[in-house]
């Protein structure tokens, strides 16, 4: 039974999938401190959060069973991603479910700041009928500058155009073609600062975006500009904004997010009549909360059940069309890695991976991760596809990829060489329609066996009677041989025998086999 802890207020309707799963027990406990989480997290296989729970390294150190952290929303700045990756914990988010909610909140904030709606409401309910102070501005014919043109930024742009606004934007990943398609003119941040009547930011908070709107940008702005932040506190320099309001440059600002949440009681925004605020409500609609909870529950369930998932934040995502092509090779790649690791002596220094035939035109990096996982699985604890590349890097294992278009007898071929200080070994495998996974080469030998069940790999000298001797010894031990394949490079030279047997060979059987004349090594593979 998998145990899932929900530590922030997440829609119950959205996580119904988890409540209904026969193999999952859901525990909802919100408002826990770091120490309280540390005390209980060891019991859980997955953790679901929004933005309140700070998932720190200390919590992850205590999370011995944790496989997944699901963020029911977009921003993962409350989760220590590096710590999660090191421990092989998959962090997933729900990037699509709250786009419209946040976009609409941004619009609500933009209209509110243009028309002083919160200030006017306050006065009206206090009994003051003031129709002079709150004369606003129209959005029509104004220029909206958008910093960050991802999902939310793009939706804001579309709606702004319907309001008759001119939209200019900055996003280092936005191409001219796409900008043109959305109807946005690409500008630099400083050009936006100089030209816009309204600025809204929709980026994550990163080293690059922190204070992306700061004193230098405020100095360029036209008087009367209005600023909106429904992304993350700190993207706009809070102090510089207050100073720009005091100087009469900024006419108003609308903030949903703060550098520190909740802001301290004496935060300058809370006293300033030109700044309107909401308590991080961008994603707080019934629809968005249900959407993100459904998405994140579905993904967590896949991870717990070892099924493919898509929105990992601490692993490169694989588009569905690529996944369809590469997924069939995951198990083969992992098995090749494991076999190589079991037959190669010494600390791994290098893994050389060759992709041929139909594999040369696809993004094979997800297969690479599985091969590296396979290589490390029997050598290190807790290896999985999230941390495999990281673990290889921290152990100075060099990974090189070769794609070869030269003709082979196979429609697809994975060739992996493992190099250690002592030796190097190569294995090649293929997927054959109707036959499944086959290992077709071990070093210079052509072989053909399915990498499953109990496999004995025998290196010997090519002398008459070898097959009989090995067969007799195994027969005497009541071990039935299911398949046998013998390969050699030259008559009488070094040879290899691959046997699949119906039950595991005890260690003494392997030792007895090794004592037979002309046998060099015997390895039992565990797959
Ligand atoms: N107030 C709230 O409740 C919510 C806030 N958010 C915030 O909104 C942000 C944006 O969300 P989405 O649009 O869904 O994410 P997204 O990933 O689709 O878009 C973010 C965009 O920012 C751009 N970007 C990154 N670095 C940049 C830089 N230095 N300068 C300019 N652009 C840069 C990226 O290229 C990307 O296009 C999230 O990161 C989150 O912090 C999201 C949902 C709800
Ligand atoms: O999705 C995001 O990035 C958000 O900021 C929403 O945060 P919340 O889930 O409402 O705490």
From TrEMBL:
Pathway: Amino-acid biosynthesis; L-serine biosynthesis; L-serine from 3-phospho-D-glycerate: step 1/3
ACT domain: residues covered: 455-527
Assigned EC number: 1.1.1.95
GO terms assigned for molecular function: NAD binding; phosphoglycerate dehydrogenase activity
Gene3D superfamilies with a match to the protein in the record: 3.30.70.260, D-3-phosphoglycerate dehydrogenase, domain 3 (3.30.1330.90), NAD(P)-binding Rossmann-like Domain (3.40.50.720)
A Pfam family assignment: ACT
Alphabetical keyword list: Amino-acid biosynthesis, NAD, Oxidoreductase, Serine biosynthesis
Swiss-Prot/TrEMBL GO biological process terms: L-serine biosynthetic process
PANTHER family in the record: D-ISOMER SPECIFIC 2-HYDROXYACID DEHYDROGENASE FAMILY PROTEIN (AFU_ORTHOLOGUE AFUA_6G10090) (PTHR42789)
Functional summary from the UniProt entry: Catalyzes the reversible oxidation of 3-phospho-D-glycerate to 3-phosphonooxypyruvate, the first step of the phosphorylated L-serine biosynthesis pathway. Also catalyzes the reversible oxidation of 2-hydroxyglutarate to 2-oxoglutarate.
Similarity comment text for this entry: Belongs to the D-isomer specific 2-hydroxyacid dehydrogenase family.
Protein's UniProt name: D-3-phosphoglycerate dehydrogenase
Source organism (scientific name): Paenibacillus albiflavus
């Amino acid at each position: 039974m998998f145990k899932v802890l929900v530590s922030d207020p997440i829609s119950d309707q959205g996580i119904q999938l988890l409540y209904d799963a026969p193999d999952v027990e859901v525990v909802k406990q919100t408002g826990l401190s770091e120490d309280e989480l540390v005390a209980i997290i060891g019991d859980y296989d997955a953790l679901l959060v929004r933005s309140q729970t700070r998932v720190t390294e200390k919590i992850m150190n205590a999370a011995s069973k944790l496989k997944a952290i699901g963020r029911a929303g977009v921003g993962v700045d409350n989760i220590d991603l590096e710590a999660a990756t090191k421990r092989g914990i998959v962090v997933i988010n729900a990037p699509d479910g709250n786009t419209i909610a946040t976009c609409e909140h941004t619009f609500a904030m933009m209209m509110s700041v243009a028309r002083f709606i919160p200030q006017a409401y306050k006065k009206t309910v206090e009994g003051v009928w003031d129709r002079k102070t709150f004369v606003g501005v129209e959005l029509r014919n104004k220029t909206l500058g958008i910093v960050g043109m991802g999902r939310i930024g793009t939706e804001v742009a579309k709606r702004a155009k319907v309001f008759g606004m001119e939209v200019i934007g900055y996003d280092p990943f936005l191409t001219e073609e796409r900008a043109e398609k959305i109807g946005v003119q690409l500008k630099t941040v400083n050009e936006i600062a100089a030209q816009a009547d309204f600025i809204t930011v929709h980026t994550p908070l990163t080293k690059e975006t922190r204070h992306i709107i700061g004193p230098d940008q405020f100095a360029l702005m036209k008087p009367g500009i209005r600023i909106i932040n429904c992304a993350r506190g700190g993207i706009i320099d809070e102090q510089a904004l207050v100073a720009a309001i005091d100087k009469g440059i900024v006419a108003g600002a609308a903030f949903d997010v703060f550098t520190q949440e909740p802001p301290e009681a004496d935060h300058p925004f809370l006293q300033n009549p030109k700044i309107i605020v909401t308590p991080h409500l961008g994603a707080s609609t019934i629809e968005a909360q249900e959407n993100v909870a459904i998405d994140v529950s579905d993904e967590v369930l896949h991870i717990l059940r070892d099924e493919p998932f898509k929105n990992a934040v601490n692993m490169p995502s694989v588009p569905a069309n690529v996944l369809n092509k590469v997924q069939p090779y995951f198990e083969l790649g992992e098995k090749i890695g494991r076999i190589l690791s079991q037959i190669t002596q010494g600390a791994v220094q290098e893994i050389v991976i060759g992709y041929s035939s139909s594999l040369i035109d696809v993004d094979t990096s997800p297969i690479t991760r599985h091969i590296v996982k396979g290589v490390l699985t029997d050598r290190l604890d807790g290896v999985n596809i999230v941390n495999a590349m990281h673990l290889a890097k921290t152990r100075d294992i060099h990974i090189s990829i070769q794609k070869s278009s030269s003709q082979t007898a196979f429609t697809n071929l994975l060739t992996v060489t493992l190099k250690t200080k002592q030796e190097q070994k190569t294995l090649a495998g293929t997927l054959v329609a109707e036959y499944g996974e086959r290992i077709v080469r071990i070093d210079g030998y052509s072989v053909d066996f399915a990498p499953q069940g109990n496999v004995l790999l025998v290196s010997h000298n090519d002398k008459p009677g070898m097959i009989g001797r090995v067969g007799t010894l195994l027969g005497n031990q009541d071990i039935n041989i299911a398949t046998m394949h013998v390969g050699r490079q030259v008559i009488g030279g070094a040879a290899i025998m691959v046997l699949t047997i119906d039950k595991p060979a005890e260690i003494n059987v392997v030792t007895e086999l090794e004592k037979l004349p002309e046998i060099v090594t015997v390895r039992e593979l565990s797959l």
